[in-house]
Design goal:
Layout: E1 11-13, E2 21-23, H1 56-65, H2 74-87, E3 91-97, E4 101-106, E5 119-121, H3 127-133, E6 137-139, H4 154-157, E7 161-168, E8 174-182, H5 190-213, H6 220-240, E9 253-259, E10 268-278, E11 281-292, H7 293-311, H8 317-330, E12 337-346, E13 351-358, E14 363-366, E15 372-375, E16 392-397, E17 402-406, H9 429-437, H10 444-459, E18 467-473
Antiparallel strand pairs: 1-2, 3-4, 3-8, 4-5, 6-7, 7-8, 9-18, 10-11, 11-12, 12-13, 13-16, 14-15, 14-17, 17-18
Length: 478
Protein backbone atom coordinates (compact mmCIF):
# COMPACT_ATOMS: atom_id res chain seq x y z
CA UNK A 1 0.00 0.00 0.00
CA UNK A 2 0.80 2.76 -0.32
CA UNK A 3 0.61 4.60 2.99
CA UNK A 4 -0.60 8.07 3.93
CA UNK A 5 1.93 10.61 2.58
CA UNK A 6 2.14 13.92 4.38
CA UNK A 7 0.15 16.69 2.78
CA UNK A 8 -1.91 14.34 0.65
CA UNK A 9 -5.24 15.34 2.14
CA UNK A 10 -7.92 13.09 3.55
CA UNK A 11 -6.68 10.74 6.31
CA UNK A 12 -3.26 9.56 7.35
CA UNK A 13 -1.50 7.84 10.21
CA UNK A 14 -0.68 9.94 13.26
CA UNK A 15 3.10 10.57 13.07
CA UNK A 16 3.20 10.74 16.86
CA UNK A 17 2.72 6.99 16.84
CA UNK A 18 -0.63 6.97 18.56
CA UNK A 19 -2.07 4.77 15.84
CA UNK A 20 -5.10 7.03 15.48
CA UNK A 21 -6.50 8.60 12.34
CA UNK A 22 -6.84 12.32 11.88
CA UNK A 23 -7.43 14.95 9.23
CA UNK A 24 -4.39 16.17 7.39
CA UNK A 25 -3.64 19.78 8.40
CA UNK A 26 -2.85 20.51 4.77
CA UNK A 27 -6.57 20.19 4.13
CA UNK A 28 -7.44 22.37 7.10
CA UNK A 29 -9.74 19.65 8.37
CA UNK A 30 -11.98 20.15 5.35
CA UNK A 31 -13.44 17.29 3.31
CA UNK A 32 -13.70 17.31 -0.44
CA UNK A 33 -17.30 16.73 -1.48
CA UNK A 34 -17.87 14.17 -4.24
CA UNK A 35 -20.91 14.80 -6.38
CA UNK A 36 -22.83 11.53 -6.31
CA UNK A 37 -24.12 10.09 -9.57
CA UNK A 38 -25.32 6.94 -7.87
CA UNK A 39 -28.91 6.00 -7.29
CA UNK A 40 -28.77 3.95 -4.10
CA UNK A 41 -31.78 1.61 -3.71
CA UNK A 42 -32.50 3.07 -0.27
CA UNK A 43 -31.82 6.68 -1.20
CA UNK A 44 -29.21 9.05 0.23
CA UNK A 45 -28.65 10.86 3.52
CA UNK A 46 -28.15 14.59 3.62
CA UNK A 47 -24.37 14.07 3.56
CA UNK A 48 -24.64 12.27 0.20
CA UNK A 49 -23.92 8.82 1.62
CA UNK A 50 -26.32 5.86 1.34
CA UNK A 51 -29.31 6.13 3.66
CA UNK A 52 -29.05 2.41 4.42
CA UNK A 53 -25.94 3.14 6.50
CA UNK A 54 -28.26 4.54 9.17
CA UNK A 55 -30.86 1.76 8.95
CA UNK A 56 -31.34 0.57 12.57
CA UNK A 57 -32.12 -2.99 11.49
CA UNK A 58 -28.91 -3.17 9.48
CA UNK A 59 -26.93 -1.69 12.38
CA UNK A 60 -28.44 -4.27 14.73
CA UNK A 61 -27.33 -7.03 12.35
CA UNK A 62 -23.83 -5.53 12.24
CA UNK A 63 -23.68 -5.43 16.03
CA UNK A 64 -24.91 -9.04 16.28
CA UNK A 65 -22.08 -10.19 14.00
CA UNK A 66 -19.50 -9.32 16.67
CA UNK A 67 -17.17 -7.95 13.99
CA UNK A 68 -17.12 -4.26 14.98
CA UNK A 69 -13.69 -3.50 16.42
CA UNK A 70 -12.57 -7.15 16.36
CA UNK A 71 -8.94 -8.05 15.64
CA UNK A 72 -7.68 -9.75 12.45
CA UNK A 73 -8.09 -13.52 12.14
CA UNK A 74 -6.18 -15.98 9.98
CA UNK A 75 -9.30 -17.41 8.34
CA UNK A 76 -10.12 -13.99 6.86
CA UNK A 77 -6.50 -13.06 6.10
CA UNK A 78 -6.09 -16.32 4.17
CA UNK A 79 -9.10 -15.52 2.00
CA UNK A 80 -7.75 -12.05 1.29
CA UNK A 81 -4.33 -13.38 0.33
CA UNK A 82 -6.11 -15.75 -2.03
CA UNK A 83 -7.96 -12.76 -3.54
CA UNK A 84 -4.60 -11.09 -4.20
CA UNK A 85 -3.19 -14.30 -5.75
CA UNK A 86 -6.17 -14.68 -8.06
CA UNK A 87 -6.36 -11.06 -9.24
CA UNK A 88 -2.75 -9.88 -8.87
CA UNK A 89 -4.04 -6.83 -6.98
CA UNK A 90 -1.88 -4.74 -4.65
CA UNK A 91 -4.32 -4.64 -1.72
CA UNK A 92 -7.19 -6.73 -0.40
CA UNK A 93 -9.40 -5.98 2.58
CA UNK A 94 -12.43 -6.99 4.60
CA UNK A 95 -14.18 -4.10 6.37
CA UNK A 96 -17.40 -3.65 8.32
CA UNK A 97 -19.35 -0.46 7.67
CA UNK A 98 -21.21 1.31 10.46
CA UNK A 99 -23.24 4.49 10.41
CA UNK A 100 -20.27 6.85 10.76
CA UNK A 101 -17.19 4.59 10.89
CA UNK A 102 -15.67 1.79 8.80
CA UNK A 103 -13.93 -0.94 10.82
CA UNK A 104 -11.08 -2.91 9.25
CA UNK A 105 -11.09 -6.65 9.83
CA UNK A 106 -8.47 -7.95 7.39
CA UNK A 107 -5.84 -5.92 5.56
CA UNK A 108 -3.07 -8.55 5.23
CA UNK A 109 -0.39 -6.24 3.86
CA UNK A 110 -0.63 -3.93 6.94
CA UNK A 111 0.48 -4.75 10.50
CA UNK A 112 -2.37 -4.64 12.98
CA UNK A 113 -2.38 -1.24 14.68
CA UNK A 114 -5.09 -1.78 17.28
CA UNK A 115 -8.81 -1.01 17.27
CA UNK A 116 -8.43 2.78 17.12
CA UNK A 117 -6.02 2.68 14.18
CA UNK A 118 -7.95 0.07 12.23
CA UNK A 119 -10.95 2.25 11.41
CA UNK A 120 -11.76 5.44 9.54
CA UNK A 121 -14.65 7.79 8.88
CA UNK A 122 -17.20 6.03 6.73
CA UNK A 123 -16.73 8.47 3.84
CA UNK A 124 -12.94 8.07 3.77
CA UNK A 125 -12.96 4.85 1.75
CA UNK A 126 -14.94 3.21 -1.05
CA UNK A 127 -16.34 0.50 1.23
CA UNK A 128 -19.76 2.09 1.67
CA UNK A 129 -20.40 1.91 -2.08
CA UNK A 130 -21.02 -1.85 -2.12
CA UNK A 131 -23.12 -1.62 1.05
CA UNK A 132 -25.22 1.20 -0.38
CA UNK A 133 -25.59 -0.52 -3.74
CA UNK A 134 -26.44 -3.83 -2.02
CA UNK A 135 -24.32 -5.55 -4.66
CA UNK A 136 -20.91 -5.50 -6.33
CA UNK A 137 -19.33 -2.13 -7.03
CA UNK A 138 -16.67 -2.33 -9.76
CA UNK A 139 -14.42 0.55 -10.79
CA UNK A 140 -11.76 0.21 -13.49
CA UNK A 141 -10.49 3.82 -13.47
CA UNK A 142 -11.28 5.58 -10.20
CA UNK A 143 -9.99 9.04 -11.22
CA UNK A 144 -12.15 9.17 -14.34
CA UNK A 145 -15.19 7.16 -13.32
CA UNK A 146 -17.98 9.74 -12.70
CA UNK A 147 -19.13 7.75 -9.67
CA UNK A 148 -15.76 8.12 -7.89
CA UNK A 149 -13.87 10.98 -9.55
CA UNK A 150 -12.61 13.36 -6.88
CA UNK A 151 -13.31 10.96 -4.01
CA UNK A 152 -11.07 11.71 -1.03
CA UNK A 153 -10.03 8.04 -0.68
CA UNK A 154 -8.27 7.87 -4.04
CA UNK A 155 -5.03 9.56 -2.96
CA UNK A 156 -4.54 8.13 0.54
CA UNK A 157 -5.39 4.57 -0.49
CA UNK A 158 -3.77 4.78 -3.92
CA UNK A 159 -6.93 3.68 -5.71
CA UNK A 160 -6.51 3.20 -9.45
CA UNK A 161 -9.07 0.42 -9.74
CA UNK A 162 -11.40 -1.09 -7.12
CA UNK A 163 -13.65 -4.14 -6.97
CA UNK A 164 -15.85 -4.72 -3.93
CA UNK A 165 -18.59 -7.13 -2.94
CA UNK A 166 -20.94 -6.77 0.04
CA UNK A 167 -20.80 -9.03 3.08
CA UNK A 168 -24.42 -10.02 3.64
CA UNK A 169 -26.25 -11.53 6.62
CA UNK A 170 -28.75 -14.37 6.29
CA UNK A 171 -31.51 -11.72 6.51
CA UNK A 172 -30.08 -9.90 3.50
CA UNK A 173 -28.46 -6.94 5.29
CA UNK A 174 -25.16 -5.70 3.83
CA UNK A 175 -22.91 -5.11 6.85
CA UNK A 176 -19.49 -4.85 5.25
CA UNK A 177 -17.36 -5.16 2.14
CA UNK A 178 -14.70 -7.46 0.72
CA UNK A 179 -12.57 -5.62 -1.82
CA UNK A 180 -9.36 -5.58 -3.84
CA UNK A 181 -7.50 -2.45 -4.92
CA UNK A 182 -4.95 -1.80 -7.65
CA UNK A 183 -2.82 1.33 -7.76
CA UNK A 184 -3.34 1.72 -11.52
CA UNK A 185 -6.47 1.60 -13.67
CA UNK A 186 -7.15 -1.90 -15.01
CA UNK A 187 -9.93 -4.04 -16.45
CA UNK A 188 -11.32 -6.75 -14.18
CA UNK A 189 -11.65 -10.15 -15.86
CA UNK A 190 -14.91 -12.05 -15.57
CA UNK A 191 -13.28 -15.07 -13.89
CA UNK A 192 -11.58 -12.78 -11.36
CA UNK A 193 -14.91 -11.17 -10.42
CA UNK A 194 -16.63 -14.55 -10.19
CA UNK A 195 -13.92 -15.79 -7.81
CA UNK A 196 -14.16 -12.59 -5.72
CA UNK A 197 -17.94 -13.06 -5.48
CA UNK A 198 -17.38 -16.61 -4.19
CA UNK A 199 -14.84 -15.37 -1.64
CA UNK A 200 -17.28 -12.68 -0.45
CA UNK A 201 -19.94 -15.33 0.01
CA UNK A 202 -17.44 -17.45 1.94
CA UNK A 203 -16.75 -14.50 4.28
CA UNK A 204 -20.50 -13.92 4.69
CA UNK A 205 -21.12 -17.58 5.43
CA UNK A 206 -18.32 -17.74 8.02
CA UNK A 207 -19.81 -14.77 9.89
CA UNK A 208 -23.37 -16.03 9.55
CA UNK A 209 -22.38 -19.45 10.83
CA UNK A 210 -20.73 -17.88 13.88
CA UNK A 211 -23.75 -15.68 14.53
CA UNK A 212 -26.05 -18.65 14.22
CA UNK A 213 -24.00 -20.81 16.57
CA UNK A 214 -23.81 -17.99 19.13
CA UNK A 215 -27.57 -17.42 19.15
CA UNK A 216 -29.48 -19.11 21.93
CA UNK A 217 -32.35 -19.94 19.57
CA UNK A 218 -30.15 -21.82 17.08
CA UNK A 219 -31.77 -24.96 15.75
CA UNK A 220 -30.05 -28.01 14.30
CA UNK A 221 -31.72 -27.45 10.92
CA UNK A 222 -30.27 -23.94 10.59
CA UNK A 223 -26.78 -25.13 11.52
CA UNK A 224 -26.96 -27.97 9.01
CA UNK A 225 -28.06 -25.54 6.32
CA UNK A 226 -25.08 -23.28 7.06
CA UNK A 227 -22.68 -26.21 6.90
CA UNK A 228 -24.20 -27.34 3.61
CA UNK A 229 -23.65 -23.81 2.27
CA UNK A 230 -20.00 -24.03 3.35
CA UNK A 231 -19.61 -27.24 1.36
CA UNK A 232 -21.23 -25.66 -1.69
CA UNK A 233 -18.96 -22.62 -1.44
CA UNK A 234 -15.88 -24.81 -1.10
CA UNK A 235 -16.83 -26.71 -4.21
CA UNK A 236 -17.63 -23.47 -6.08
CA UNK A 237 -14.21 -22.11 -5.17
CA UNK A 238 -12.63 -25.40 -6.30
CA UNK A 239 -14.43 -25.12 -9.63
CA UNK A 240 -13.30 -21.51 -10.08
CA UNK A 241 -9.67 -22.67 -9.92
CA UNK A 242 -10.22 -25.07 -12.86
CA UNK A 243 -10.85 -24.01 -16.47
CA UNK A 244 -14.58 -24.42 -17.14
CA UNK A 245 -13.96 -25.62 -20.71
CA UNK A 246 -10.71 -26.74 -22.30
CA UNK A 247 -9.66 -24.87 -25.40
CA UNK A 248 -8.18 -27.73 -27.49
CA UNK A 249 -5.08 -27.28 -29.59
CA UNK A 250 -5.84 -27.22 -33.31
CA UNK A 251 -5.97 -30.72 -34.74
CA UNK A 252 -6.14 -32.45 -31.33
CA UNK A 253 -9.00 -33.95 -29.32
CA UNK A 254 -8.84 -32.80 -25.67
CA UNK A 255 -10.89 -33.58 -22.57
CA UNK A 256 -10.51 -33.15 -18.81
CA UNK A 257 -12.48 -34.57 -15.91
CA UNK A 258 -12.48 -33.82 -12.18
CA UNK A 259 -13.67 -36.48 -9.72
CA UNK A 260 -14.23 -35.15 -6.17
CA UNK A 261 -13.50 -37.26 -3.13
CA UNK A 262 -16.48 -38.76 -1.32
CA UNK A 263 -17.94 -36.35 1.22
CA UNK A 264 -15.27 -33.75 0.48
CA UNK A 265 -16.23 -30.37 1.94
CA UNK A 266 -12.93 -28.51 1.57
CA UNK A 267 -11.08 -27.00 -1.35
CA UNK A 268 -8.35 -29.38 -2.46
CA UNK A 269 -5.31 -28.85 -4.62
CA UNK A 270 -5.82 -30.91 -7.81
CA UNK A 271 -5.69 -28.68 -10.90
CA UNK A 272 -5.18 -28.87 -14.65
CA UNK A 273 -4.88 -26.46 -17.56
CA UNK A 274 -4.44 -26.43 -21.34
CA UNK A 275 -3.50 -23.21 -23.12
CA UNK A 276 -1.59 -21.70 -26.02
CA UNK A 277 1.92 -20.82 -24.81
CA UNK A 278 3.06 -18.91 -27.89
CA UNK A 279 2.86 -19.32 -31.64
CA UNK A 280 2.27 -22.99 -32.51
CA UNK A 281 3.28 -24.16 -29.02
CA UNK A 282 0.72 -25.36 -26.48
CA UNK A 283 1.06 -26.35 -22.84
CA UNK A 284 -0.83 -28.98 -20.87
CA UNK A 285 -0.24 -29.06 -17.13
CA UNK A 286 -1.58 -30.98 -14.16
CA UNK A 287 -0.74 -30.52 -10.49
CA UNK A 288 -1.61 -31.77 -7.04
CA UNK A 289 -1.12 -29.46 -4.05
CA UNK A 290 -0.54 -31.11 -0.69
CA UNK A 291 -3.37 -30.58 1.77
CA UNK A 292 -6.81 -29.01 1.59
CA UNK A 293 -8.63 -25.79 2.37
CA UNK A 294 -7.70 -22.17 1.76
CA UNK A 295 -3.96 -22.82 2.00
CA UNK A 296 -4.18 -25.37 -0.83
CA UNK A 297 -6.35 -23.00 -2.90
CA UNK A 298 -3.76 -20.21 -2.54
CA UNK A 299 -1.00 -22.46 -3.88
CA UNK A 300 -3.26 -23.70 -6.69
CA UNK A 301 -3.96 -20.12 -7.78
CA UNK A 302 -0.26 -19.18 -7.56
CA UNK A 303 0.73 -22.25 -9.61
CA UNK A 304 -1.81 -21.75 -12.37
CA UNK A 305 -1.07 -18.07 -12.90
CA UNK A 306 2.72 -18.53 -12.67
CA UNK A 307 2.70 -21.40 -15.17
CA UNK A 308 0.59 -19.42 -17.63
CA UNK A 309 2.88 -16.39 -17.29
CA UNK A 310 6.16 -18.30 -17.75
CA UNK A 311 5.16 -20.91 -20.35
CA UNK A 312 5.13 -18.29 -23.09
CA UNK A 313 8.72 -17.26 -22.30
CA UNK A 314 10.24 -20.71 -21.88
CA UNK A 315 9.39 -23.72 -24.04
CA UNK A 316 11.24 -26.06 -21.67
CA UNK A 317 8.80 -27.50 -19.09
CA UNK A 318 11.75 -28.10 -16.73
CA UNK A 319 12.62 -24.39 -16.79
CA UNK A 320 9.00 -23.34 -16.24
CA UNK A 321 8.54 -25.74 -13.30
CA UNK A 322 11.84 -24.59 -11.79
CA UNK A 323 10.60 -20.99 -11.98
CA UNK A 324 7.38 -22.05 -10.27
CA UNK A 325 9.47 -23.60 -7.49
CA UNK A 326 11.33 -20.30 -7.05
CA UNK A 327 8.03 -18.36 -6.99
CA UNK A 328 6.60 -20.66 -4.33
CA UNK A 329 9.67 -20.23 -2.13
CA UNK A 330 9.64 -16.45 -2.63
CA UNK A 331 5.95 -16.28 -1.69
CA UNK A 332 6.48 -18.63 1.28
CA UNK A 333 3.82 -20.95 -0.15
CA UNK A 334 2.36 -22.96 2.75
CA UNK A 335 2.08 -26.21 0.75
CA UNK A 336 4.25 -28.16 -1.68
CA UNK A 337 2.96 -29.60 -4.92
CA UNK A 338 3.65 -32.17 -7.61
CA UNK A 339 3.19 -31.34 -11.28
CA UNK A 340 3.55 -32.65 -14.82
CA UNK A 341 3.87 -30.29 -17.76
CA UNK A 342 3.93 -31.01 -21.49
CA UNK A 343 4.75 -28.33 -24.06
CA UNK A 344 4.07 -29.41 -27.64
CA UNK A 345 3.09 -28.39 -31.15
CA UNK A 346 1.08 -30.17 -33.79
CA UNK A 347 2.93 -31.75 -36.74
CA UNK A 348 1.79 -33.31 -40.02
CA UNK A 349 2.10 -36.70 -38.28
CA UNK A 350 0.36 -35.67 -35.04
CA UNK A 351 2.12 -33.80 -32.20
CA UNK A 352 5.62 -33.53 -30.72
CA UNK A 353 7.05 -31.83 -27.66
CA UNK A 354 8.73 -32.20 -24.28
CA UNK A 355 7.40 -33.37 -20.95
CA UNK A 356 8.67 -32.96 -17.38
CA UNK A 357 7.69 -34.54 -14.05
CA UNK A 358 8.07 -32.69 -10.73
CA UNK A 359 7.37 -35.33 -8.10
CA UNK A 360 4.31 -36.38 -10.13
CA UNK A 361 3.23 -39.84 -11.36
CA UNK A 362 4.47 -40.58 -14.89
CA UNK A 363 2.38 -39.59 -17.87
CA UNK A 364 0.94 -42.42 -19.97
CA UNK A 365 0.84 -42.63 -23.77
CA UNK A 366 -1.71 -44.95 -25.35
CA UNK A 367 -0.55 -45.83 -28.83
CA UNK A 368 -2.98 -46.33 -31.68
CA UNK A 369 -2.49 -50.12 -31.48
CA UNK A 370 -3.48 -50.16 -27.76
CA UNK A 371 0.01 -50.35 -26.23
CA UNK A 372 0.53 -48.12 -23.17
CA UNK A 373 3.90 -46.53 -22.37
CA UNK A 374 5.08 -44.43 -19.43
CA UNK A 375 6.61 -41.03 -20.20
CA UNK A 376 8.79 -38.82 -18.02
CA UNK A 377 11.77 -38.99 -15.66
CA UNK A 378 10.99 -38.68 -11.91
CA UNK A 379 11.87 -35.22 -10.63
CA UNK A 380 11.81 -33.05 -7.51
CA UNK A 381 8.48 -31.93 -6.08
CA UNK A 382 8.06 -28.15 -5.84
CA UNK A 383 7.95 -25.68 -2.97
CA UNK A 384 10.44 -27.25 -0.56
CA UNK A 385 14.06 -27.09 -1.83
CA UNK A 386 15.76 -24.17 -3.59
CA UNK A 387 17.48 -26.56 -6.03
CA UNK A 388 15.41 -28.85 -8.24
CA UNK A 389 16.21 -31.91 -10.33
CA UNK A 390 13.94 -31.70 -13.34
CA UNK A 391 14.36 -33.38 -16.74
CA UNK A 392 12.69 -32.74 -20.08
CA UNK A 393 11.79 -35.84 -22.09
CA UNK A 394 10.80 -35.65 -25.74
CA UNK A 395 7.63 -37.37 -26.90
CA UNK A 396 5.73 -37.81 -30.16
CA UNK A 397 2.11 -38.63 -30.82
CA UNK A 398 1.07 -40.16 -34.11
CA UNK A 399 -2.32 -40.85 -35.66
CA UNK A 400 -4.64 -42.32 -33.00
CA UNK A 401 -2.15 -41.85 -30.10
CA UNK A 402 -3.29 -40.34 -26.77
CA UNK A 403 -1.40 -38.59 -23.96
CA UNK A 404 -2.95 -39.17 -20.51
CA UNK A 405 -2.21 -37.03 -17.42
CA UNK A 406 -3.68 -37.75 -13.99
CA UNK A 407 -3.29 -37.08 -10.27
CA UNK A 408 -2.52 -39.78 -7.71
CA UNK A 409 -6.19 -40.38 -6.92
CA UNK A 410 -6.24 -42.43 -10.15
CA UNK A 411 -3.44 -44.77 -9.02
CA UNK A 412 -4.20 -45.05 -5.29
CA UNK A 413 -7.92 -45.91 -5.32
CA UNK A 414 -9.10 -48.35 -2.66
CA UNK A 415 -12.46 -49.47 -1.21
CA UNK A 416 -13.81 -47.91 1.97
CA UNK A 417 -12.08 -49.83 4.80
CA UNK A 418 -15.28 -49.46 6.84
CA UNK A 419 -17.51 -50.76 4.07
CA UNK A 420 -18.81 -54.18 3.17
CA UNK A 421 -16.77 -54.74 0.00
CA UNK A 422 -14.16 -57.52 0.16
CA UNK A 423 -10.54 -56.48 0.56
CA UNK A 424 -8.95 -55.36 -2.69
CA UNK A 425 -5.42 -54.17 -3.43
CA UNK A 426 -4.78 -50.52 -4.25
CA UNK A 427 -5.63 -49.60 -7.81
CA UNK A 428 -2.00 -48.89 -8.71
CA UNK A 429 -0.17 -47.59 -11.78
CA UNK A 430 -0.14 -51.03 -13.39
CA UNK A 431 -3.91 -51.31 -13.02
CA UNK A 432 -4.33 -47.79 -14.41
CA UNK A 433 -2.18 -48.64 -17.44
CA UNK A 434 -4.33 -51.71 -18.11
CA UNK A 435 -7.52 -49.67 -17.79
CA UNK A 436 -6.09 -47.17 -20.29
CA UNK A 437 -5.17 -49.98 -22.69
CA UNK A 438 -8.80 -51.11 -22.54
CA UNK A 439 -9.84 -47.72 -24.00
CA UNK A 440 -8.15 -48.61 -27.30
CA UNK A 441 -9.87 -46.63 -30.07
CA UNK A 442 -11.79 -44.26 -27.75
CA UNK A 443 -11.61 -40.50 -28.07
CA UNK A 444 -10.40 -38.24 -25.22
CA UNK A 445 -13.79 -37.77 -23.49
CA UNK A 446 -14.72 -41.47 -23.72
CA UNK A 447 -11.29 -42.43 -22.38
CA UNK A 448 -11.74 -40.24 -19.29
CA UNK A 449 -15.28 -41.54 -18.77
CA UNK A 450 -14.08 -45.16 -18.93
CA UNK A 451 -11.26 -44.53 -16.43
CA UNK A 452 -13.74 -42.81 -14.08
CA UNK A 453 -16.09 -45.82 -14.30
CA UNK A 454 -13.28 -48.28 -13.62
CA UNK A 455 -12.15 -46.32 -10.56
CA UNK A 456 -15.71 -46.11 -9.22
CA UNK A 457 -16.12 -49.85 -9.71
CA UNK A 458 -12.90 -50.55 -7.82
CA UNK A 459 -13.59 -48.37 -4.78
CA UNK A 460 -17.32 -49.08 -4.74
CA UNK A 461 -18.36 -45.43 -4.89
CA UNK A 462 -16.10 -44.33 -2.01
CA UNK A 463 -13.29 -42.11 -3.36
CA UNK A 464 -10.55 -41.48 -0.79
CA UNK A 465 -8.99 -38.65 -2.77
CA UNK A 466 -9.90 -36.15 -5.46
CA UNK A 467 -8.79 -37.13 -8.95
CA UNK A 468 -8.10 -35.10 -12.09
CA UNK A 469 -7.82 -36.65 -15.56
CA UNK A 470 -6.68 -34.97 -18.80
CA UNK A 471 -6.46 -36.66 -22.21
CA UNK A 472 -4.99 -35.31 -25.48
CA UNK A 473 -5.54 -37.44 -28.59
CA UNK A 474 -4.47 -37.20 -32.20
CA UNK A 475 -7.54 -38.19 -34.22
CA UNK A 476 -6.87 -41.15 -36.54
CA UNK A 477 -5.93 -40.09 -40.04
CA UNK A 478 -8.55 -40.98 -42.68
Amino acid sequence: MIGWPAGSGGIRRDPAGSGGIRRDPAEGGRQRQVVSVLGYPGGMRQDGLPAVLSDPVRLAALEASGMVGSAPEQVFDDLMRLAVSVTGSAISAITFVGETRTYWKSVPHLPYGGVEAWQNAVGDSFCYFAVGADGPFIVEDAENDPRTAGHRAIGPWGVGAWAGFPIVTTDGHAIGTMCVIDANPRPWQRQELETLAILARAVSNEINLRTTLNTAQTTLAIAQSALATSRDLARSLQDSLLPPVLRPAPGLDASARYLPATGEAEVVGDFYDLFNARGPWWTAVMGDVCGKGTEAAKVTALARYTLRADAGDHLSPAVVLDRLNAAMLAQHAPRFLTAVQATFRTTPAGAAGRLCLAGHPPALIRRADGRVQQAGVPGTLLGILPTTRLTDVRFRLGSGDLLFLYTDGACEARPDPRGSLPHRPIFDEEALAQALADTHGMDAAATNAHIADVLAGHHGGWASDDTALLSLRVPPHP
